[in-house]
Design brief:
CATH class of the largest domain: Alpha Beta
Largest sheet: 8 strands, mixed
Oligomer: single chain
Strand order of the largest sheet: 10-9-11-12-13-20-21-22
CATH architecture of the largest domain: 3-Layer(aba) Sandwich
Number of domains: 4
CATH topology of the largest domain: Rossmann fold
């Protein structure tokens, strides 16, 4: 029953939109308003876009695919009214209007929802049976903003089922609820998907409008910070007039050609619903462009939508695409509800006639027109026979949001009634009387609503009025016969940490045939193999790089490593620099071939020295043994014997006592040996000088001088060694770095300076001995060892001069081997050069070992 209006009616100023002709009306005690977006285009005279291939006409062009949104709202209201557990004795009704993707028509449709049924009287409530409690809409963020601008004044809740990318803080004053996750969640989802598949070299295509600008400003820096680079970023203008269409199509086809040429295999598309209609011109592929397989990653608002003139287009270019959609589930009864739809089912459905004609490409008979061009609609056509781009039988994410929105309003009304009845229950004829409740009161109950829908999903809002839900990851499967399927292959959960938010069943994904069902790669260049790290290319994004082999001691055990990993001290890098292997302990041991050979040489020379010493002792009374002080010969032989034996101290694992004895024993024993050689040389010189008449050198010839030389020279070396042991003594140590694959056990010299002082002093003694022997080489030959000593000291000095560079240039156990070799070689040189000629006479030519024979040889040589 109409009541008296209390305000002056407002005048409609948007009559050109005529949205009242495209309404879906169902009366009830409470009305849920619906504003959908299906009608895309009208004639050019109304300044709306029209495809250049579409003939001008006065009939609106519908996006038939989104007719399901209308049916989802009707289905949800039908279920609520049939459910005796929710709002008993109360009937929900709904009014649905189209926004035409136009601000003016959106405003008018919103005002129509606020007006009395069948009258356009804004700001009036003239019918108690038209109580608007909430509005479900709209599909695009721009439409939602226009609706919110009107509803905010009336404090009526809006449940937005589509994109919310433009809903920012400036709209928080309005009672709005988001049935889809915020756009920022989707940005993170796309990022996690790219990182999951390691697609770091991508192309980006966005509409050149406010939504596209928000995407570029918010999402692309996020991608870049997480290692994603861009081959190119293209903004496609959004055209609104026929005159702009041709230019935009040419531009899009140029972009398509660029996409096919570029190396990146992944293209991220972002835009609202109408953007896909614009990008549908991708399907008009220029003949000169060779199509290639690409992975299209699309935002939740994008879908394959076809208009009537696109019926025969091949959508294979989008095969294997991945898209984010609002989460949906299977609702029992909804497929059957769709199957029962027909033009005769509900006369109040203002959408179904135009939907039917454009979806099935037919015409209904018209009494005003005698002849029908084309096929005639029978009304018996089946929705399930329509291709996916025209209509889907499975519930889409947007339809699922609408379904949940209706149930959320119903549960909120139920909660509001329960709250009211506690204080003042009002019943009239068994029906609830909530008409006196103001729309803004429902807002509180919507915020706290929580229930499980018929699919088993929980529906509740967070403190920001956003539905606690996520996204489904959909794989588009397009068959050669143009059939279109959406396969759910993953999910994004917004309640878990970002790195765990996206889960994908990769085995379920059907890639484009170009990739032969192998996961596509999308990188600027080939991945750096194991053992190689990235090396930046000058002037290129960081995703474009060269690969450099890891340096010594470092590895790269993963693909595309930024830096090589340093192996730990006890490990070394493998030959391919792809793993760290444990180092093995190394020292010169008696089990090594080198250690065995050096041991054999040391023992052999020791036995030879002992044999020479025994020979000299056995023939100690012979002239050749007595010559040049036989006691010095004995001392020299014993010191040489010890020299050969001290080489054994350098073989085997280094221990505390061994390290203390190695260098000190070597230094002192060799000092004694060289001192003996020096004493022998001086004795020879003094002996020949003392034979001259009136010489005063006789008093210097004797054991006292030679003993003094040996003791004084050895004492100096012993003092150096004592200082060494007292200050910085040698100690067992490990060398982790000298040899790449080994942990070298060694004796640390403690003080390198004192070590070289020991060697330097030995070199000084050897040089003095060599100089004195060299000066005495021309003395008479009989019993003269000067020549042999000169040659022996030449060998000795040569060995130790070559020792220093050899020692410094070797590493690990070979340093020890070099020192042992020098000890053995220099000792053998002294033994051979000084004592071999004498042993030859003693053993092989004993007849020459007497004074007369030696003197005779001297005379014969003269």
């Amino acid at each position: 029953m109409d009541t008296v209006c209390k305000a002056q009616p407002a005048k409609c100023v948007a009559s050109d939109c005529i949205p009242i002709l495209y309404k879906y009306y169902q009366p009830g005690d409470f009305i849920i308003g619906g504003i959908t977006s299906q009608i895309l285009m009208v004639s050019e005279e109304n300044n709306f876009i029209q495809h250049p291939l579409q003939e001008q006409n006065q009939e609106p062009i519908l996006l038939t695919k989104y007719y399901q949104h209308v049916l989802a709202l009707a289905f949800a209201v039908k279920e609520v009214n049939e459910n005796t557990q929710i709002l008993p004795n109360v009937t929900l009704g709904f009014h649905i209007y189209d926004s035409y993707f136009n601000a003016m028509c959106t405003y008018q449709a919103t005002m129509l929802l606020l007006s009395t049924w069948d009258r356009f009287n804004p700001n009036y409530k003239c019918n108690t049976h038209s109580n608007l409690v909430a509005v479900v809409g709209g599909l695009s963020s721009e439409t939602s903003l226009h609706i919110a601008a009107i509803l905010g004044s009336y404090k009526i809740s809006q449940l937005m089922y589509g994109s919310t990318s433009a809903i920012s803080d400036k709209t928080q004053v309005f009672p709005t609820f988001r049935m889809a996750p915020k756009e920022t969640h989707q940005y993170m989802g796309i990022l996690r998907l790219l990182l999951h598949f390691r697609w770091i070299w991508i192309n980006v295509l966005a509409v050149d409008d406010d939504d596209g600008e928000r995407f570029v400003q918010a999402a692309l820096p996020l991608f870049f910070q997480n290692g994603i680079c861009f081959d190119f970023i293209e903004r496609i203008p959004r055209f609104s007039f026929v005159s702009e269409a041709f230019e935009v199509i040419i531009l899009i086809q140029k972009v398509y050609a660029l996409i096919m040429e570029r190396k990146a295999n992944v293209l991220v598309l972002h835009g609202e619903i109408h953007a896909m209609i614009t990008w549908g011109t991708f399907l008009y592929i220029p003949e000169k462009v060779t199509p290639k397989g690409k992975v299209w990653i699309m935002s939740a608002q994008l879908d394959i939508v076809a208009l009537g003139y696109q019926r025969n287009l091949d959508f294979q270019v989008f095969q294997g695409a991945l898209s984010f959609t609002s989460h949906s589930n299977i609702l029992p009864g909804f497929p059957k509800f769709l199957q029962l739809r027909s033009p005769s089912w509900n006369k109040e459905d203002g959408f179904i006639k135009d939907f039917w004609q454009q979806a099935f490409n037919c015409k209904f008979p018209n009494v005003l027109v005698d002849e029908i061009v084309g096929e005639t609609c029978t009304g018996e056509e089946k929705l399930e026979s329509l291709p996916g781009p025209f209509f889907e039988m499975s519930m889409t994410g947007h339809s699922y949001n609408i379904y949940n929105a209706v149930y959320a309003v119903a549960h909120a009304l139920q909660a509001m009634h329960a709250s009211t009845s506690k204080h003042k229950p009002v019943v009239d004829g068994g029906s609830l009387k909530l008409q006196n409740q103001q729309p803004w009161q429902l807002h509180h109950f919507l915020r706290s609503v929580s229930f499980n829908n018929s699919a088993g999903d929980t529906v509740s809002f967070d403190h920001n009025g956003e539905l606690v839900t996520g996204f489904d990851v959909i794989n588009w499967v397009i068959s050669p016969n143009h059939s279109f399927h959406k396969v759910k292959v993953g999910r994004m959960d917004i309640l878990v940490p970002p790195e765990q938010s996206v889960t994908v069943k990769e085995d379920a994904i059907m890639w484009h045939s170009w990739f032969n069902q192998v996961r596509p790669f999308s990188v600027c260049n080939e991945n750096c193999r194991l053992g190689y790290s990235k090396q930046k290319k000058e002037g290129e994004p960081f995703c474009c790089y060269d690969c450099a082999l890891c340096p010594e001691g470092k590895i790269a055990n993963q693909l595309d490593m930024v830096d090589c990993i340093q192996c730990q001290e006890y490990q070394y890098a493998s030959k391919n620099h792809d793993s760290c292997l444990p180092k093995f302990v190394s020292f010169l041991s008696y089990e090594d071939a080198l250690g065995i050979n050096l041991t054999i040489f040391a023992l052999s020379f020791s036995l030879i020295t002992a044999f020479v010493l025994g020979t000299f002792l056995k023939h100690q009374d012979t002239p050749i043994v007595k010559a040049n002080n036989q006691n010095l010969s004995y001392t020299l032989l014993i010191s040489l014997l010890l020299c050969f034996l001290c080489a054994l101290l350098f073989i085997g694992p280094p221990e505390n006592m061994v390290c203390l004895l190695r260098q000190t024993a070597f230094g002192i024993i060799f000092s004694i040996a060289v001192s003996c050689v020096l004493a022998k040389t001086i004795t020879v010189v003094l002996a020949f000088m003392a034979t001259k008449p009136g010489s005063g050198m006789r008093k210097w010839v004797g054991r006292r001088l030679s003993n003094s030389i040996i003791l004084s020279c050895s004492l100096i070396q012993a003092t150096i060694c004592a200082v060494w042991l007292a200050t910085y003594p040698p100690f067992p140590d490990t060398d982790m770095h000298s040899v790449n694959e080994e942990i070298v056990l060694k004796c640390n010299e403690g003080s390198v300076a004192l070590f070289y002082c020991v060697l330097g002093y030995l070199g000084f003694l050897a040089l003095v001995s060599f100089t004195v022997a060299f000066l005495a080489r021309k003395l008479p030959n009989t019993f003269n060892e000067a020549k042999f000593i000169t040659f022996s000291m030449l060998v000795f000095c040569s060995v130790w001069l070559s020792f220093v560079p050899s020692y410094l240039s070797t590493k690990g156990k070979y340093m020890v081997a070099v020192e042992i070799f020098s000890i053995l070689a220099s000792s053998a040189g002294l033994l051979g050069c000084i004592f071999f000629p004498k042993c030859y006479i003693i053993v092989m030519r004993p007849e020459l070992n007497n004074r007369e024979q030696l003197m005779r040889r001297k005379i014969e040589r003269k």
